[in-house]
Amino acid sequence: MFRVRLAYKIIGGAILLATGLVFLLTGGQKIAPIFAGTNTSVNPYHPVVSFHFDSRATTVVAAFAQAGIAYHPQDQIQVFPANIQDGLGGVIFDTQALPLTIVDGTKPYAAFTWAATVDGLLKEQNITLGDQDEISPALASTLHPKQTITIVRVAVTSVTQTSPVAFNVVKQDDPTLNKGLTKVKTPGKNGVLTSVYRDTRKDGVTVSHVLQSQSVTTAPISEVDLIGTKPVITVPCAGYDNTVLSAAIANNVDPNLLCKGLIIESNGHAGSVGGGGTYYGLFQYTTSFWAQASAMCGFPGAAWNDGPTQIKVTACAIHKGYSSRWPWA
After folding, report:
1. 184-198 burial, b for 16+ CB within 10 Å, e for fewer?
2. Does the N-terminal peptide bond of residue 327 adopt cis geometry, omega within 30 degrees of 0?
3. What is the DSSP letter of 323?
4. How far from 131 is each of 146, 152, 155, CA to CA, in Å?
5. Is the CB of residue 94 less than 8 Å from the CB of residue 87?
6. How far apart are the C-alpha atoms of 123 and 127, rounded to whole Å?
């Protein structure tokens, strides 16, 4: 004799009465025999959907496809009869997981859960939050159908940047270098300024760049430029170039002025006599002024026709304020 037993089981808030053997599938994995029947209550968070399938469906997935209902392996699925592969048709009760959307670092995806809170959802989905990450709603918040859970991935890093520190240029007079010339004695070199920033990125986008510290980690080296101050003769000087140059440097006089003067006065002849026997030498001194100037400049009793001495005395006299004695000076 074949006997039918009546039984009930509460699944996901629904009371199911049944005649016959049913299997409970959790996550599409384990199958446990229960008795199937009629859905008599609805849980809004985990509604129960029931539908028939015919003999053409011999798998659970095929049965869902036949009914036009999306299959989610996270649902709790009851099948009657249990041996769906026999092709006898039957009924499926689908207690659905809570549907929602997770946006993790700008990447959205659908999720189906049995968790009651956001924190439980993260544990169920094996989602780990970093120390600086942000989540909305808060971890203790209760989940709701079709809710969106947004995770913002936050990265805080220390960024080191370097920039050049310009070197200074120091100019030094060089009496051994011809006037008008310059020479680099010491090449300059830029220093290094090191800046440390605290960068905050949210979902890969920098939202703050805050200076934390700044210091000169390599000091610049100043460039030293030599500026020539040594007088340079650029005009004819009747062969007295070296003597004129030495006298001009000693008395801070333009050597070209001296060269110009000796050419104008005597055309460079040390024994020249002019003015009817009144003026003598390279720079045409009177005898009285020659005696005065040569003694004043440290050459007392020097002969007026001593060309080098007359050049030195003339440079000294101009330096001491006697330039008005010569129109060219």
Report:
1. eeeebeeeebeeebe
2. no
3. G
4. 27, 12, 9
5. no
6. 6
Fill in the DSSP letter of residue 123. Answer: H
Calpha distance 219→68 (Å, rounded): 75
* Tokens 């009747």 sit on residue: 238
Residue 65 Cα to chain centre, angstroms:
55
Backbone angles phi, psi at 101, to 5 degrees: -120, 135
100 neighbors 145 (Cβ within 8 angstroms):
yes
Contact between 248 and 315 (Cβ < 8 Å): yes
Report the candidate in 96, 80, 100, 97 with the shortest Cα–Cα distance to residue 88. Answer: 80
Name the token pair of 183. 């020479």
How distant is the alpha carbon of residue 139 from its chain centre?
Answer: 36
CA distance 114 to 11: 13
Q: Give the HSE-up count for residue 212: Cα atoms under 13 Å, Cβ half-sphere.
A: 13
Pairing of strands 169-178, 223-230: parallel
Tell me which amino acid residue 155 is. A
Pairing of strands 169-178, 134-136: unpaired
Element (DSSP H or E) covering residue 149: strand 147-152
Q: Which of 1-10, 42-51, 196-205 reaches the highest mean pLDDT?
A: 196-205
Q: How many other C-beta atoms are found inside a 10 Å radius of the C-beta of residue 74?
A: 16
Whole-angstrom Cα distance, residue 71 to residue 48? 13
- Report d(CA 296, CA 100) in Å as an integer: 111
Quote the distance between the C-alpha of residue 295 and its chain's center.
74
The answer to which of 10-14, 84-88, 108-112, 140-144 has the lowest mean pLDDT is 10-14
Q: What is the edge-to-edge ordering of all strands in the sheet holding 169-178?
A: 169-178, 223-230, 182-186
Q: Of 107, 96, 43, give the one whose Cα is nearest residue 74.
A: 96
The H-or-E segment that residue 247 falls in is helix 241-251
User: What three-state secondary structure class fits 118?
Assistant: helix
What pLDDT, in 10s, does the model give residues 278-305? Answer: 999 999 999 999 999 999 999 999 999 9
User: Whole-angstrom Cα distance, residue 135 to residue 314?
Assistant: 95
